[in-house]
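Following up on my earlier thread - several people asked me to post the actual chain instead of describing it. Fair enough. Here it is, all 86 residues.
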Amino acid sequence: MPWWGIAAIFTGCFIVFSVLHYLSQKKHPFKRALLSMIAGALTLLAVNLCSGFTGVYIPVSLLSILVSVIGGVPGVTLILILNTFF
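Reply from S.P.:
Thanks for posting it. Predicted structure:
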């Protein structure tokens, strides 16, 4: 997938999250949307950095990055649960 396609997916997710936060009448919808996307990416990074201690590793691919950014912390948790069972 070209880089502009990945950027379009991230931009689209940011816009969707911003609209959802705006419709739920939260303060600072853009900031909240950006923070939720960053939290998912940082959670994926934290899991991979701690893999030496825990033995749990999530391979970094386009799919895992998209799930972590779109799903946030619950998305990374879902990847960990699926990695445990499959």
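The chain has four helices and no strands. That should answer part of your original question.
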